[in-house]
Design brief:
Transcription Regulator spoIIAA; 2 domains; 28 helices; 62% helix; Sulfate permease, SulP family; membrane; STAS_dom
């Protein structure tokens, strides 16, 4: 039986929780699904609109992907579906190529989701998930903040009913100057009232006065977007607001998502490949970070490669079901966890409820104002626009701070894909710069101990006949010449020097360039009658050195500990 369970869990990870599923978990998951659906319906339609697609595709993107993830994913509460950042990246990828909303644009969005799925799936199956995580957290954080700012600005056109562009800040300002005089004041008032409702109503509901009268308002607060949607539809219908220029979603087709392979050709695939790779990268980083946070809280296991496979299959299903790229949603995942979801079945229930909406209730959303969807996006995404991380990162690390600002200005001044690429490249350049500028210290013994510390930071014992050094970095071609220069300067300031001891405790790897540098240093010191010694060499480093000429020609010795080297080379000082 145990072998059968192991095979089932390998083929179908969901078997791990399905075999323990019970009535109590069913009730918790179903309740959670009803709460999440109150957010998912307006969000899904809004994010589809953000991607330049028909609102119904936002509902399609919330059906099969969630069911697939529930079967193969590892997080019990992660909510897969459309999110603002990925929708914006979808729009940025397709907008320069096709007319927004056209049939070819829609087909390209489906193909883009399919390609994201293929990339993610292959990386997961080949155990290459670690490659996507090489992007530094500051760059990702800066990218999300900058993208959120562009997303919020991009929705402003629906609040004023003019064709503003928001691929970058200069483009937005130019179009704002050109078209703002043509804005619809009634639409603006309607949109601003919606924003005020979504911003201030949660604060009113959470106040002590309200909660003391009606009790917990958590469910009502989470359902506010849906309440606003229903109220606005009623207002448009009964007050005939279309006559004063309030634009609505219009006719939405009903039915189950059409299942078909998206149209493709090799030229189109090559054109979309960079965008698909970017979206796969960001969707995995965002989804994994959310899943890891909930996994820690729920004390559940999480495998990054398995998550990559699950996300890949979810996007494949999105491409096959007339949807666009998806990933984990932070807001819906938090709501899902807080509302008591116990297993991924909560996501399955949410998908089934979305199916009912798609089949029978799409006509209800015909009179939904576009300004309401825009307000929903702005309120949900504006929480991410926070500049405190820039200040905190700059104080902690100037290099990471520079990478954040480069990414931010790249995104808001050029476009999100180019900005992200600039951020990634800058991260690796700064990483190489840091490696090429390692921390090197002359060290001495702290009296009464066997510990050695930097002579510029501590009161330590030293000897004029002995130079003790430590490099806090792996030795390679990037920093070998820096280390050699530091050693030469240190030696030149001490005419009584007889021994140089390099503490290798912080060196985990060494390349051929660094070994050749040590051979040169050994030969040059030998000419000055100064012996070179090494201490505390790690196993992998020793394996490399044994295949070199350094150990054969080393003028000094190799010591197990640095303290042992000091005692033997200068017993009058180090006892």
């Amino acid at each position: 039986m145990s072998d059968l369970n192991s095979r089932l869990m390998t083929l179908l990870p969901a078997w791990q929780w399905l075999r323990k599923y019970n009535q109590a978990k069913f009730k918790s998951d179903l309740l959670s699904a009803f709460i999440v659906i109150a957010m998912l319906v307006p969000q899904g339609m809004a994010y589809a609109m953000l991607a330049g697609l028909p609102p119904i595709m936002g509902l399609y993107a919330s059906i099969l992907p969630m069911i697939i993830y529930a079967m193969v994913g590892g997080s019990p509460t992660l909510s897969i579906g459309p999110v603002a950042i990925i929708s914006m990246m979808t729009f940025a990828t397709l907008n320069p190529l096709f007319e927004v909303g056209s049939p070819v644009y829609i087909q390209a969005a489906c193909l883009l989701a399919f390609m994201v799925g293929v990339i993610s799936l292959l990386l997961g199956l080949l155990k290459f998930g670690f490659l996507i995580q090489l992007i530094s957290h500051p760059v990702i954080k800066s990218f999300i903040i900058a993208s959120a700012l562009l997303i919020a600005l991009g929705q402003f056109k629906f609040l004023v009913d003019v064709p503003l562009k928001a691929n970058n800040i200069p483009e937005f300002l130019l179009s704002f100057w050109q078209y703002i005089r043509y804005s619809n004041i009634e639409t603006f008032i309607f949109g601003m009232l919606s924003l005020c409702f979504l911003i201030y109503m949660p604060k009113i509901l959470s106040s002590h006065a309200v909660q003391s009268r009606i009790g917990s308002t958590a469910f009502i607060s989470k359902a506010l977007p849906l309440i606003l949607v229903v109220a606005s539809i009623a207002a448009v219908y009964f007050l005939n607001l279309k006559e004063i220029g309030i634009k609505t979603v219009g006719e939405i087709p009903s039915g189950f998502p059409p299942l078909s392979m998206p149209y493709w050709n090799m030229d189109l695939v090559i054109t979309l490949l960079p965008g698909a790779a970017m979206i796969a990268m960001i969707s995995f980083v965002e989804s994994l970070s959310i899943a890891q946070a909930t996994a820690l809280q729920q004390r559940s296991d999480l495998n990054s490669n398995q998550e990559l496979v699950a996300l890949g299959l979810a996007n494949l299903s999105a491409g096959l079901s007339s949807a666009f790229p998806v990933t984990g949603s932070l807001s819906r995942t938090v709501v899902n966890a807080d509302s008591g979801a116990k297993t991924p079945m909560a996501g399955v229930f949410s998908s089934l409820l979305i199916v009912l909406v798609s089949l029978y209730f799409t006509g209800f959303f015909r009179d939904l104002p576009l300004a309401i969807l825009a307000a929903t996006i702005i309120v949900s995404i504006w929480k991410l626009v926070d500049f405190k991380p820039f200040i905190e990162t700059w104080r902690y690390s100037k290099a990471d701070g520079i990478a954040m600002w480069i990414t931010f200005f790249g995104v808001i001044c050029i476009d999100i894909s180019t900005g992200l690429m600039i951020g990634i490249v800058s991260t690796f350049i700064l990483l190489l710069w840091r490696i090429s500028r390692p921390h090197i210290a002359v060290i001495g013994l702290i009296e009464g101990t066997q510990h050695f510390r930097n002579i510029q930071r501590h009161h330590v014992l030293t000897s004029s006949k002995l130079l003790s050094m430590r490099i806090d970095e792996n030795l390679n071609f990037l920093n070998a010449h820096i280390f050699k220069g530091f050693l030469i300067n240190a030696v030149s300031h001490n005419i009584d020097l007889e021994h140089v001891v390099i503490n290798c405790s912080s060196i985990s790897s060494i390349d051929l360039s660094a070994v050749e540098m040590l051979e040169d240093v050994n030969a040059e010191l030998n000419k000055l009658n100064i012996k070179l010694h090494l201490s505390e060499i790690k196993g992998p480093v020793m394996d490399k050195l044994q295949h070199s000429k350094l150990l054969k020609h080393l003028s000094g010795k190799i010591y197990l500990t640095h303290f042992q080297a000091m005692q033997q080379l200068s017993p009058d000082v180090f006892q």
